[in-house]
Write a structure and sequence with these properties.
By secondary structure, this protein is of the alpha/beta class. It folds into 2 domains: 218 residues, Vaccinia Virus protein VP39 (Rossmann fold), CATH 3.40.50.150; 236 residues, Spore Coat Polysaccharide Biosynthesis Protein SpsA, Chain A. It is built from 17 helices and 14 strands. The strands form 2 sheets. A 7-stranded mixed beta sheet has the order 3-2-1-4-5-7-6, with helices on both faces. A 7-stranded mixed beta sheet has the order 10-9-8-11-13-12-14, sandwiched between helices. Strand 1, helix 4 and strand 2 form a beta-alpha-beta unit. It is elongated, with a radius of gyration of 25 Å. 39% of the residues are buried.
Length: 475
C-alpha cells in the first residue's frame, strides 16, 4: 500500500532527498544508533511480530530479530533501500499518520519519530487499531534539553540534518499516552554521552547515566506502554493454586477448606518439601478425603527450596492462571479472588500481594523483617522502574502463558533465586508485564515456624538486588 496525497508533504520530499546518504549519516553516529538497537533488543522478545513506524533503511527493525517484521516509511526511496538490504523483512510506503494495515502486532516501535508527527495524539489513537491486548508500544525520543546541542550538531555536520521537530518533554508524552488510552509500563533514559569516547562513554553511560537526578540529563528518553483495555466483567479462566508445603502439617486441611473456587475451575496442587513432620501423610489423607469435591493433586519436590517447589507445581498445573499460596496461610486463602479479578479483567498481568498496607497481627512479621522489606521495596522500585511495595510477599499470580515466556527467557538471568519471588519479578519486568499489587492482611502463623533466616537470607536477597542492577538497570 502506497502513501497517497494530493499535496506533497515537504518532509517526504526532504527525507527522500537524503535517503541515499542516510546510512552514511548514521555511520557517523553509529554509537548512538547501536545503543538504540541494544535497548530495543532488551525490550522486545525475540521472534515476535514487530511493526516499526518510520523505519527508514531498516536497520533497527532487523536488529530485533522479528518472526514477522514490517516497516513503514513515507519515503519511497527509504523503503526501496530497506527492502534491498533486508529481503526477509517487509517494507511499505505509508505515512505513520495514515496507518492502514489489516493485522495486529506484538510490538510497535516509534523511534525518534514523535518529533516529526503533525498530530501525535491522533497517531497514538490510530496505532491502537493494530495492537492486541498484550501488545507493547515502544517510543524513543530526544530529551528536549538537548535541543540546542542537536541543532548545533546539525549545523556542524555532525548529525543528520532534519526539518524542525516537536520538542516535547516527558510530561507532555506521558499526558498524550494517557489521553490516547495507554497505560505506561515503564519509562527510562539512556546516554549522557552520545558519542563513543573509549572507556569514558562506557563508564558514564552504563552507570552514571542511571543515577537519580543525573539521569534527567540523558539525551534519549523511552516509554513502554500497553493499550488500556479493562474488562469490567472478569473473563472465565481455569485456575491452578500452587501450595508449597514444608513442615505445614497443621495447615493442609485448612487450605483445602478455605481456598474459594474461582473461574471455570480451580485445582489445588500441594508440593511437599522434605518435611520433618507428617506434612506428606497429611496431604495424602486430605487428597483422599476431599478428592471427590475438589480438584486436588500433590507432588514431592526432588530439589530443595521454595523456588524448586513452585516450579514443580507450575509444571504440573493445567490452569490458565497460576497462583502461589504459601503453605503457612499467613495470607488468607479467602483473599485469592481479588487476585483473580485483577488479572481476569486485564487490570494487570503480574499480580503481587502487598502485606505492608494494612496493620499486621503482632507476630505476623518481625520488626527487622519489616525494615528489610521496605529497603528491598525502594531498591526494586528503582531497579524495575515500576513501583513495588512488597517484593517478598509469597502470593503472586500470572497467566501460565506468561510464565512459560519467563521460563524461555530465564537464561538471561540464570539460576540465581532459591525463593522464586525474584525469578518471577525479574522475569515479568524483562517481559514488560503490567504489575499491580493487591493489599492483603498478613496474619500470624497458626501452625509451625518460619523457614526464613533473617540475616543469611537477607544477605542473599541483597546480593540478588546487586545482580538485578547489572541485568536490568546497567544493561
Amino acid at each position: 500500500m502506497k502513501y497517497n496525497s494530493s499535496k506533497i508533504n515537504p518532509k517526504v520530499e526532504y527525507f527522500s532527498s537524503i535517503a541515499d546518504r542516510w546510512d552514511k549519516w548514521k555511520s557517523r553516529n553509529s554509537y548512538y544508533h547501536k545503543n538504540i538497537e541494544k535497548l530495543m533488543q532488551f525490550l522486545i522478545e525475540p521472534r515476535s511480530s514487530v511493526l516499526e513506524l518510520g523505519s527508514a533503511t531498516g536497520d533497527l527493525l532487523d536488529s530485533v530479530d522479528p518472526s514477522t517484521g514490517i516497516g513503514i516509511d513515507f519515503s519511497k526511496k527509504m523503503v526501496d533501500i530497506a527492502a534491498k538490504k533486508y529481503p526477509k523483512l517487509k517494507f511499505v510506503e505509508m505515512d505513520a499518520e495514515r496507518i492502514a494495515l489489516g493485522r495486529k502486532f506484538d510490538y510497535v516501535i516509534m523511534s525518534d519519530l514523535i518529533g516529526h508527527l503533525g498530530d501525535i495524539q491522533k497517531c497514538l489513537v490510530d496505532i491502537l487499531n493494530i495492537m492486541h491486548a498484550r501488545s507493547r508500544l515502544i517510543i524513543t525520543y530526544y530529551n528536549f534539553l538537548w535541543e540546542p546541542i542537536v541543532i548545533l550538531s546539525e549545523k556542524l555536520g555532525l548529525k543528520t540534518p532534519q526539518p524542525r521537530q516537536n520538542w516535547i518533554n516527558t510530561h507532555d508524552l506521558h499526558n498524550l499516552l494517557e489521553l490516547s488510552d495507554y497505560e505506561i509500563i515503564r519509562s527510562g533514559q539512556r546516554l549522557l554521552i552520545p558519542k563513543n569516547i573509549p572507556v569514558i562513554s562506557w563508564l558514564v553511560n552504563k552507570y552514571l547515566a542511571q543515577l537519580p537526578f543525573i539521569k534527567k540529563l540523558c539525551v534519549v528518553r523511552f516509554f513502554v506502554a500497553r493499550p488500556r483495555l479493562i474488562d469490567k466483567k472478569a473473563k472465565q479462566y481455569s485456575v491452578s493454586v500452587i501450595i508449597p508445603a514444608r513442615n505445614e502439617q497443621g495447615n493442609i486441611e485448612q487450605a483445602v477448606l478455605r481456598v474459594p473456587k474461582m473461574g471455570k475451575s480451580t485445582e489445588l496442587i500441594f508440593v511437599e518439601g522434605h518435611s520433618t513432620d507428617k506434612t506428606l501423610d497429611e496431604i495424602k489423607r486430605v487428597v483422599k478425603a476431599y478428592g471427590k469435591k475438589w480438584q486436588l493433586r500433590f507432588a514431592v519436590q526432588k530439589g530443595k527450596g521454595k523456588a524448586d517447589a513452585v516450579r514443580e507445581g507450575f509444571r504440573m498445573a493445567d490452569g490458565d492462571i497460576l497462583m502461589i499460596l504459601d503453605g503457612d496461610l499467613t495470607v488468607a486463602p479467602e483473599e485469592l479472588p481479588k487476585f483473580y479479578e485483577a488479572i481476569a479483567t486485564n487490570r494487570g498481568e503480574f499480580i503481587n500481594g502487598s502485606r505492608l498496607v494494612y496493620p499486621m497481627e503482632k507476630q505476623a512479621m518481625r520488626f527487622l523483617n519489616i525494615i528489610g522489606n521496605k529497603f528491598f521495596s525502594l531498591m526494586f522500585t528503582y531497579i524495575l522502574e515500576q513501583r513495588f511495595k512488597d517484593t517478598l510477599c509469597g502470593t503472586k499470580v500470572l497467566f501460565k502463558s506468561d510464565y512459560e515466556r519467563i521460563v524461555r527467557n530465564r537464561h538471561y538471568f540464570g539460576e540465581f533465586d532459591p525463593f522464586g519471588d525474584y525469578d518471577l519479578i525479574f522475569g515479568a519486568a524483562k517481559l514488560n508485564l503490567k504489575t499491580i499489587e493487591i493489599p492483603i492482611r498478613y496474619r500470624d502463623r497458626v501452625y509451625g515456624e518460619t523457614n526464613i533466616s533473617r540475616f543469611r537470607h537477607g544477605m542473599l536477597l541483597f546480593k540478588m538486588c546487586l545482580f538485578a542492577l547489572q541485568k536490568l538497570k546497567f544493561h
